[in-house]
Design a protein that fits this description.
It contains 8 helices and 12 strands. The protein is of the alpha/beta class and about 240 residues long. It has a 6-stranded mixed sheet with strand order 3-2-1-11-12-9. A 6-stranded mixed sheet has the order 4-5-6-10-7-8, with helices on one face. A hairpin with a 4-residue loop joins strand 11 and strand 12. Helix 7 runs antiparallel to helix 8. The longest helix has 13 residues. The radius of gyration is 17 Å and the shape is globular. The protein binds zinc ion. The site of zinc ion has 7 residues, from loops. Zinc ion binds next to loops.
C-alpha cells in the first residue's frame, strides 16, 4: 500500500494543486491529511473542495476547529486570529460543519494520524523534542504515527529504550522500531525551505519519503493581499518561515 500523507495546507490552493499533481505520478492508494486544511491563506473553499473531491480523510487541526467555532482562537497570534475570523466569513454552513466534524485522531490498520500529539490531541501541542515524543509513543498502538502542526518535517524514532530525532528525507523503516513522523506543511513551510512538502509511506517497501515541490508562490501571495489578510502571511510563504 502506498499512502500519500500531507498536512497544513492552510488554504493555499496553489501549493495544494502542485502537491496533488506530484502525487499523481506516485501510484498512491490512499490519501491522508494531518489537519489544518484552512487558516492563513486565501482559498479555504477551494482547498476543502479538493479534499472532498478526492475523498481524503483528515484529522482535525487547531485552525480547522477554530474556523468552525469549535476551538477558542484567543491563544493564536494576531495574524492567525485575523485569518480565523476572515475564514469563518468565507465558509458555507456545509464547510463549517465538515471542519467541525473532523476527528482528532484517524486510525487505519497501518498507521495513526493526529495533528499535534497523541497523548493530548485536543491540546494541539507542538511536538518538537524527545520528551514529548516519549509521551506520545506510550499511546501508540500502531508502528507509525503521522503528525503535522509545527510545519517542520522531522522523524522521531524509538529503538528499544532509545528515542532519537532524524531530519533525513528518506527513511527505511525497521520492523522492530516505532516512528512519529512530522510530514511538514503543504501551504506554509517553516523549515527555511519555501517549497511545498508532501510525503509517501510505502508499507510494502517499508519506506517513508518526504519530497518538496515548487508552486506558484506569487499568486498565493497576491490572493492573500487582495483578500485583505495580514501581509506577513504573504511574506512568509517566500521565506519558508
Ligand atoms: Zn498549521
Amino acid at each position: 500500500m502506498r499512502y500519500a500523507l500531507f498536512s497544513d495546507v492552510h488554504s493555499n490552493l496553489e501549493a495544494f494543486q502542485a502537491v496533488l499533481a506530484a502525487y499523481a505520478q506516485e501510484n498512491i492508494d490512499v490519501y491522508l491529511c494531518a489537519g489544518d486544511v484552512v487558516g492563513y491563506g486565501a482559498n479555504p473553499g477551494g482547498c476543502l473542495a479538493l479534499l472532498k473531491k478526492r475523498q481524503i480523510s483528515c484529522a482535525a487541526g487547531n485552525h480547522d476547529w477554530a474556523a468552525a467555532g469549535r476551538l477558542d482562537p484567543s491563544y493564536f497570534n494576531r495574524a492567525a486570529r485575523e485569518a480565523v475570523c476572515w475564514t469563518q466569513n468565507q465558509l458555507s454552513k456545509e464547510e463549517t460543519s465538515f471542519l467541525s466534524g473532523l476527528p482528532l485522531i484517524h486510525k487505519s490498520k497501518d498507521l495513526i494520524l493526529v495533528h499535534g500529539t497523541l497523548d493530548a490531541p485536543q491540546d494541539f501541542v507542538y511536538l518538537t523534542d524527545r520528551e514529548q515524543a516519549e509521551a506520545a509513543f506510550q499511546f501508540m498502538d500502531r508502528p507509525v504515527c503521522f503528525v503535522g502542526h509545527t510545519h517542520v518535517p522531522e522523524v522521531f524514532i524509538q529503538e528499544g529504550k532509545n528515542i532519537y530525532a532524524s531530519m533525513d528525507s528518506r527513511i527505511k523503516l525497521n520492523p522492530a522500531s516505532r516512528y512519529i513522523i512530522n510530514v511538514g506543511s503543504v501551504g506554509q513551510p517553516r523549515d527555511g525551505n519555501p517549497l511545498a512538502a508532501y510525503c509517501i509511506y510505502d508499507t510494502d517497501a517499508r519506506t517513508f519519503e518526504i519530497k518538496r515541490i515548487a508552486y506558484d508562490i506569487e499568486t498565493a501571495q497576491k490572493k492573500i493581499m487582495e483578500a485583505g489578510l495580514p501581509a506577513s502571511l504573504a511574506r512568509r510563504l517566500a521565506e519558508g518561515y
